[in-house]
């Protein structure tokens, strides 16, 4: 057969060369795929790293402002609040709360003038608390965060820096 077509039958060396080229191509495809995958992961993760760096820079600048601003921060003591707790029992439960609002520098008079608005925003939240809501170590943290959120909502952003709970007594 090989004499009539003019082709020589493949010997072992030719088969080995073709098999070697096939392996080399397969390895090259795998390497390129791995590099492309690594590049994709790097590209996907890179904005998160940049965003984290921006957050760290903002946090450090806020800490620096807080350290500088603590001297000029004004503390507004709020009259003690006593509200009924929500409960289905025959005996009434009460909570007495004393807290301080930390006003942003230069906003003390505006916060003092609108203090009744803050108290009005906090009353419904405090009245909806159940005695079980005051149990546990995270209870004060949750209450403080909600009070901060409602105070900021009532006064506007940038008016209140913090809410400091002094007493939280359940009777």
Oligomer: single chain
Helical/strand content category: alpha+beta
Which H/E pattern describes the elements? Answer: HHEEEHHHE
Return the average pLDDT rounded to an integer: 79
Task: Estimate nothing, just give the exact number of structural domains.
Answer: 2
Number of strands: 4
CATH class of the largest domain, named Alpha Beta
Distance between the termini: 107 Å
Question: Hey, roughly how much beta strand do the residues contain?
Answer: 15-25%
Largest sheet: 4 strands, antiparallel
Number of helical regions: 5
In angstroms, what is the radius of gyration? 35 Å
What gross morphology would you assign?
elongated
Fraction in helix: 55-70%
CATH-defined fold name of the largest domain? Tetrahydropterin Synthase, Chain A
Report the uncertain regions.
none
At CATH level 2, the architecture of the largest domain is: 2-Layer Sandwich
Structure description:
By secondary structure, this protein is of the alpha+beta class. It folds into 2 domains: 1-71; 74-170, Tetrahydropterin Synthase, Chain A (2-Layer Sandwich). Helices cover 57% and strands 17% of the residues. The protein contains 5 helices and 4 strands, in the order ααβββαααβ. Strands 1, 2, 3 and 4 form a 4-stranded antiparallel sheet that branches. Helix 4 crosses helix 5. The chain is elongated, with a radius of gyration of 35 Å. The termini are far apart. The mean pLDDT is 79.
Compact description:
The protein is built from five helices and four strands; from the N terminus they run H-H-E-E-E-H-H-H-E. The protein has 171 residues and is α+β, with helices and mostly antiparallel strands.
